[in-house]
Amino acid sequence: MFFAQVPRNALAQGNNEQDNNVQNLLVQQRIEFHKYKQAQENIRFILNQFKKKNIEIKKAEQAYKDNQQSIPKRYIRGNARGRLCTIKIRVLIYE
């Protein structure tokens, strides 16, 4: 028998080494899990920022579309578009 030939000190030392190895592996797993959780939180944070920015962009696009629809067609046709708008603004200021 193997156990009969090996002194108890050697078995105890082997068990201690295995326990230490297991403890080290558990610590490494905890560290890796913590890193994973932090990375996941960072991704969620960035994703939320993108979602907020996307909502802002959609609101700005909608406001732009609404403003474009409210401008009379005669002020946005042809090459005189800028000049007519400028004239309209000046008339409003002087009135």
Describe the structure in your own words.
The structure is a single chain. The protein is an all-alpha fold and 95 residues long. The chain has one domain (7-94). It contains three helices and no strands. The relative contact order is 0.04.
Task: Note the topology.
Elements: H1 2-5, H2 8-70, H3 81-94
Question: What does this entry show, briefly?
Answer:
The chain has 95 residues and is an all-alpha fold. It contains 3 helices and no strands.
**Which shape, going by the Cα principal axes?**
rod-shaped
Number of domains: 1
Low-confidence stretches: 86-95
* Number of DSSP-assigned strands: 0
> Which series of helices and strands comes N to C?
HHH
- How many angstroms separate the termini? 111 Å
Q: Give the percentage of residues in beta strands.
A: under 5%
Number of helices: 3
In round numbers, the mean pLDDT is 76
Descriptive terms for the model:
95 residues; mainly alpha; 85% helix; disordered C terminus
